[in-house]
Amino acid sequence: MTGSNAEERNKVPRFGGVPVHKRLQDAAGGLERAVMIRLIERLPVYGTLPAEHLGGDIAKQVTRGIRTFAGILRTGEMPGQAEAAAIRESSARRADEGVPLEAVVGAYHLGAEECAAQVFSAAEPGDLADVLMVQRQLLEYLRLVSCEVAAGYVQERQTALSDEQVALQSLLSRLLEGGSPQVAADRAGIQLPARYLVLSIAMGPHPDELVPGVNHAVAARRKLRRLRNEIQRQTSGVALSVLSGGGGLVLMPCTTSPDDFGRANRARLSDLVEQLGRMCGAELLAAATIAAPEGVAEAARLAGEVRAVAEASGRGPGLYLLDDVLLEYQLSRPSPARAGLAALLDPLDDRPELLDTLRAFLARGLDRRRAAARLQVHPNTVDYRLRKATELTGLDASRGADTLTLRAALAAHDAVGQATPEANRPVTPTPPTGGPAPT
């Protein structure tokens, strides 16, 4: 400690010959009332608190703050651990009550302004050194208070958010298990909607995830955060989701009737998927279904299957309903004919580029140029690959009679190949362990 600091600590500042802490103590009663009035005038959130609360805990904290600062002026010492803990506890209570952090910090600063106005008005020209001393002590006190307020507030919010996330995770798990989710909804404090829009999403990379030297994990997390934020912005009510960098499952409360789903509101659903992709900066392929809460488990399974079929059949980004993939979906279901259809493409098992070209060519209406653009190759390359596929399988994708057979064979081939992996299953969440939490 420097000599000047030690002298300042041992010196009691005076204005007009009267110790500043004595002036503050003498004015405490009127000062408390003035601070309470300013809180309500300048920070409207305090005016919404119950009168009993304002006159109770809030008033006590104002009184405590004035007394604490008077003690600093008297001793030159900053508050110890006990006072710091009291500030943190008070801030945690404000967090629990929903008072914004900026309002809690602002309350202390308004109190400091009132204290300063009360005592500085008594300063005389010869009190400059003491004025500077009081200012330094006031700023140091505000620095300490701001840190403790932030620490208490953030700790309480983290605890509350953890509890909320666990409750939301429990509700999401219950919805995906089937049966009545009412108990889990009550525990989470959520009123169940009449229906959920169920989206099974496959998400492409953000451009930043492809740039060498960029932290791809950070880019993926930013993409996910933007997606979650846009989902919540587009939702009236509480959306539930479990998402990773490659996609996942989203449940959004909706009011659409089952009879209208896919007809009257298809354009709106397509716009929604497009907007979600635009905001997160990645291509989205999403399959949608709709269900009452008790039917979410089956709807999620169906959405996952529709998404997998749309992906496997070479569809591009966008919204897909069951009606869009009826043929491929039906042909991918287990049947005596499925294995035979899949076997038609066995000669291409070692030539994945030929399979990809067939998918792209069929998915784009037999248009070689559009298929080439999708595959990012020259149209002549598409022609060569199609000829090679015909040589190996005996099936010509440009011949009408073979086109339907190839579509069926691709659907069966992909279904047989994905019978064991997880690609056909809806994403099921696991308890949060510090990773992505449900929104």
TrEMBL record:
Gene3D superfamilies: PucR C-terminal helix-turn-helix domain. Residues 428-439 have a biased composition (Pro residues). Signal peptide: none annotated. Residues 416-439 are annotated as: Disordered. InterPro entries: CdaR-like_regulators, PucR_C-HTH_dom, PucR_C-HTH_sf, RsbRD_N_dom. Residues 354-412 form the PucR C-terminal helix-turn-helix domain. It comes from the Bacteria. Residues 34-165 form the RsbT co-antagonist protein RsbRD N-terminal domain. This is PucR family transcriptional regulator. The lineage of its organism: Bacteria, Bacillati, Actinomycetota, Actinomycetes, Kitasatosporales.
